[in-house]
């Protein structure tokens, strides 16, 4: 099970997923949980991923998404994993949403927490102009392998990645015959409270 953090645009270490991964693995047999640092990000122990976080603004380009996909593939091989599921928050959800379609079958299931699933619409809602190099989960739905489980969880008070982004994405996924559901919970954008509880519970359902 992979845990992928968000953009942490306010700066500082990006290691808030470590505790979630630790807890997840501790309570399960035959499950390896890995919290990945996205390219250019660092943790509070000074460990840093190679690559660039691009000023923590536009992290949605192909190079970064490919780097994360490569790390997942490598770790799956290293552990001889039968399957893999991933939970991504915010920008991390954008990353694994793209990977589900760009590398079909690499992940058996994805939990998209507070997902900017349509990056162009997300930028527009934030009054920002996106970059043409941004990759968006909604544009990769055609590549998602049938049978891949998708759960999009967003807080109803999230004014960053608004709930409609998740709902619209899931509607489009369902229209393609994919196994996708949306869950709107209490709380806002940060990965805590109802959002983290619902996302981790959904991941646990997939990791059986």
Report on the structure:
The chain has 6 helices and 6 strands. It is α/β, with parallel strands linked by helices and 208 residues long. Helix 3 links the parallel strand 3 and strand 4. It is globular, with a radius of gyration of 15 Å.
Short description:
Helices cover 36% and strands 14% of the residues.
Protein topology:
Blueprint: E1 2-4, H1 17-26, E2 34-36, H2 62-79, E3 85-89, H3 91-102, E4 109-113, H4 119-125, E5 149-155, H5 163-175, E6 179-185, H6 193-206
Parallel strand pairs: 1-2, 1-3, 3-4, 4-5, 5-6
List keywords for this structure.
alpha/beta; 208 residues
Task: Please list the strands of the largest sheet in the order they lie side by side.
Answer: 2-1-3-4-5-6
Output the structural class: alpha/beta
Q: Kindly state the number of beta strands.
A: 6
Helix proportion: 25-40%
Q: Largest sheet, described in full?
A: 6 strands, parallel
Radius of gyration: 15 Å
Gap between N and C termini:
11 Å
The outline comes out as: globular
SSE order in H/E notation?
A: EHEHEHEHEHEH
Q: How many separate helices?
A: 6
Q: Quote the beta fraction.
A: 5-15%
Which regions are unreliable across 5 or more consecutive residues at pLDDT < 50? none
Q: pLDDT average, as an integer?
A: 92
């Amino acid at each position: 099970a992979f845990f992928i953090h968000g953009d942490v645009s306010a700066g500082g270490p990006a290691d808030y997923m470590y505790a979630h991964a630790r807890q997840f693995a501790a309570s399960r047999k035959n499950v390896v949980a890995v919290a990945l640092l996205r390219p250019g990000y660092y943790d509070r122990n000074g460990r840093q991923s190679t690559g660039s976080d691009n000023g923590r603004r536009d992290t949605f380009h192909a190079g970064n998404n490919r780097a994360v996909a490569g790390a997942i593939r490598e770790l799956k091989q290293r552990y001889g994993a039968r399957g893999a599921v991933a939970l991504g928050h915010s920008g991390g959800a954008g990353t694994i949403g793209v990977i589900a379609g760009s590398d079909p079958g690499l992940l058996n299931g994805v939990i998209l927490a507070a997902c900017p699933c349509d990056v162009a619409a997300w930028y527009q809602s934030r009054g920002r102009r996106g970059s043409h190099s941004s990759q968006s989960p909604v544009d990769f739905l055609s590549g998602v392998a049938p049978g891949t489980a998708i759960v999009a969880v967003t807080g109803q008070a999230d004014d960053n990645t608004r709930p409609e982004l998740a709902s619209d994405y899931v509607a489009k996924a369902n229209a393609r015959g994919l196994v996708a559901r949306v869950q709107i919970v209490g709380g806002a954008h940060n990965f805590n409270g109802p959002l983290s509880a619902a996302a981790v519970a959904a991941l646990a359902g997939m990791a059986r």
